[in-house]
Specification:
This protein is mainly α. It has 8 helices and no strands.
Length: 185
């Protein structure tokens, strides 16, 4: 076992020893379920697409989520092929069903930060800050539930934030291009 994995496991063991309690054991599986397949963030993006005022933000979220699916989940997870922490520490009793894919990056965290960062940068006052709180809770829940290492979470945060910024930039460019083209017609 390498140094990073040992360090990651020591953080997870500390969480298990010092933070676990009956209340959180009940709440964290629900919180983590918000990130299952990115459904929560996909739903927000889809609803935003229906309203002219939020359509651009919904499109930005959609582009970011697609980037995460293609690059994070479909490419990086199988290439890195990092086994889950509960496979090292088999004494841990999981509170959720075992995920059957690889560990790096955390897909829940990736999707959450793609959605939340777009919302934070575009709709900060009313929805961005609550979205970021939810994203952070989902990310922490993955460690609490012993299904991701801290470095998986950090990777998900960094990639998700990068995909969010990229999607804002690219959608703005395309939006401006098509708006100018439409106005000339």
């Amino acid at each position: 076992m390498d140094f990073i994995t040992q360090t990651d496991l020591s953080v997870l063991d500390w969480i298990a020893e010092h933070i676990h309690c009956g209340f959180l054991d009940g709440v964290m599986p629900f919180i983590t379920s918000l990130g299952d397949a990115g459904w929560f963030w996909i739903a927000i993006a889809a609803v935003m697409l229906f309203f002219k005022k939020t359509r651009k933000t919904g499109l930005m979220m959609g582009v970011a989520l697609i980037c995460g699916l293609l690059i994070g989940n479909s490419f990086l997870k199988p290439v890195v092929a990092r086994i889950r922490p509960y496979e090292y520490n088999t004494a841990v009793e999981l509170l959720i069903e075992k995920p059957h894919d690889f560990s790096f990056p955390s897909g829940h965290t990736l999707a959450s930060f793609e959605g939340a960062v777009v919302l934070l940068l575009r709709e900060k006052k009313y929805i961005g800050i609550p979205a970021m709180v939810i994203a952070c809770l989902i990310a922490f829940s993955r460690m609490y539930l012993y299904v991701h290492y801290p470095t998986d979470i950090i990777g998900g945060i960094l990639l998700g934030s990068a995909f969010a910024v990229f999607s804002i930039w690219s959608v703005n460019k395309l939006w401006d291009y098509f708006s100018k083209k439409k106005n000339k017609a």
